[in-house]
Amino acid sequence: MPLHVRIVIVISIALLMVNATLLVINTAATMDSHAQYARSYEIKRSLSSFQSVITAAESGQRGYLLTGQTGYLEPYYVAMRSWRSEIEKLRTLTADNVARQTDITELEEFTADAVSRLKATISSSPQPGPNGTADVAGTERATTTMDRVRGIVDRMMAEEDARIEALRREVLRDLLVAGGLALLTTVVTVAVLIGLNKLLLRYVAARQIAENAMLEANQVLNVQVEQRTAELTELSQHLIRVSEEEKAKLARELHDTLGSNLTAINMDLNWIQRRLPEGTREIRERLQRVLQMLTETVELKHEVIEGLRPSHLDNLGLAFAMRSHCREFTRRTGLPCEVDVQEDFDDLDPAWSIAFYRIAQESLTNIAKHAQASKVRIVLGREDGGIRLRIIDDGVGVAEESLSKPKSHGIVGMRERMRQMGGRFQIQRPAEGSGTMVEAFIPATNATAVSA
Ligand SMILES: Nc1ncnc2c1ncn2[C@@H]1O[C@H](COP(=O)(O)OP(=O)(O)OP(=O)(O)O)[C@@H](O)[C@H]1O
Ligand SMILES: [Mg+2]
Fold first, then answer.
1. Per residue in 51-93, pLDDT tens?
2. Pairing of strands 337-341, 376-383
3. Residues 320, 189: one domain?
4. Is there a domain that residue 282 lies in?
5. Helix (H), strand (E) at residue 437
6. Distance from the CA of 198 to the center of ligand 1, in angstroms?
7. How far apart are CA 336 and CA 183, in angstroms?
């Protein structure tokens, strides 16, 4: 992916993260503001409650002094018992506010003062009631102190109201700023994402073009490879055909020239041997040795000619040639070789005959060279709509890596022969036991000269 596309992706992710961070910060700020609101309202509720308590104390004292009924003292006593706990509640609520703590201390002092004055008026008024004597002067003093207490409470109330108002404004401002920021980052994010989308589309299109170009190049290459393969196949077919023709020609030449010469030499030497006078023992021995060597040379010539072009193949058919080669193999190596062929195959296309024969020849050579086998079996027959040749040994088997040895050409040659003929070639472990099975198959459709 190009660098600029990656940069834009990173920017998009960063913007989304900024958005998320802003959301978290705003939520935290809102929760904090909410807690402050709740605290201020709680303080206001406590101040009201405190105010009711001291008002109840004052009303109770007045009611008693005016009527002389002790029933009025009930709320007074309740207030007397509870005002300090109300103050403590307020102190706890404003624990984090030093200025408010000072207010509360002041409130406590004035309330204590007012309460003791109320108390004093009750004790200095032994006969309260409409006709009795009440401590009016003391009551006025108590009221004055109570007014100061009320003043402090009102001031604190007003301060909490102002605080609530300030909080409201602050929250509103924060909301506006946060909303604006969120809107801004969202707009920027959307713009960046649209840009990214365009870049990605362009990038995908460019990749598509590059892939198409690569595909086209590959196709061109494939066509070239196919052409070259066809040319090479043609060439190798030609080389194999030429090589077989050359070998056959050489075999004929050797047979016709060398063969007749060797026969003539043999006849002449035999003539000389018959006519040698008595007493030439040494010459006779030498001549015997020459004749022996000549016999060996004739055999060697025969082997060379057979190797070049098995004479049986052309004259007596594939089955006979296979059996003959097998016998020769056993004679040379001492390994028993069984040939399982149901018919003569003497009407097979010579190209197929020589291909099968060469595969059997190379397989037997490989067995002698590599297999360490104790027996060999060759099976040739019509199967699955074609002709199948199998050469099976019970030796050490072929290792996977041996099949691609760089300087080994036998297996490659066998495979190539089959490929050219449109057949199939396999080398594997036989279905039962150990060893190696070489398998060559030609479908009848390809073997034009295969008789049914
Ligand atoms: N019947 C077999 N049993 C065990 N190993 C085998 C057999 N046939 C082939 N191999 C292994 O496969 C390898 C390749 O065989 P291939 O005929 O291609 O080459 P090669 O015989 O080594 O040389 P050349 O080119 O002369 O044929 C051999 O070297 C051998 O290790
Ligand atoms: Mg070989």
1. 999 998 888 888 888 888 888 888 889 888 899 999 999 999 9
2. parallel
3. no
4. no
5. strand 436-443
6. 61
7. 94
Spatial strand order in the sheet of 424-428? 337-341, 376-383, 386-393, 436-443, 424-428
Distance CA 335, CA 330 (A): 5
Look at the chain and report how many structural domains it folds into. 2
Nearest CA to ligand 1 atom 6: 398
* Owner of token pair 């097979």: 348
- Measure 366 CA to ligand 1 centroid, in angstroms: 5
**Ligand in closest contact with the CA of 399:** 1
Kindly state whether residue 273 falls inside one of the protein's structural domains. Answer: no
* Average pLDDT value for the chain: 89
Q: Using CA positions, which residue lies closest to atom 23 of ligand 1?
A: 408
If phi > 0 it is left, if psi is from -120 to 50 it is alpha, else beta; for residue 322 that is alpha
Quick one: pLDDT band at residue 445, thresholds 50, 70, 90? Answer: confident
Residues 266/301, Cβ–Cβ less than 8 Å: no
- The full length of the chain comes to 452
What's the domain range around 112? 3-204
| 216 φψ region: left (φ > 0), alpha (ψ -120 to 50), beta (else) | alpha
Evaluate whether 373 touches 395 at the Cβ level (below 8 Å): yes
**DSSP E strand stretches across 49-201:** none
Question: Cα(first)–Cα(last) distance of the chain, in Å?
Answer: 63
Of the three residues 184, 204, 224, the one that is the final residue of a domain is 204
> Which domain CATH number covers 187?
1.20.120
Quick check: pTM over 0.90?
no
Residue 379 CA to chain centroid, in angstroms? 49
What would you measure as the largest C-alpha separation in the chain, in angstroms? Answer: 199
Round to whole Å and give the CA distance between 266 and 413. 40
Please identify every residue whose CB atom is under 5 Å from ligand 2, which is an ion.
Answer: 366, 410
In the structure encoding, which two tokens stand for residue 233, read together?
Answer: 């196949």
DSSP 182-245: HHHHHHHHHHHHHHHHHHHHHHHHHHHHHHHHHHHHHHHHHHHHHHHHHHHHHHHHHHHHHHHH
Same domain as 324, residue 199: no
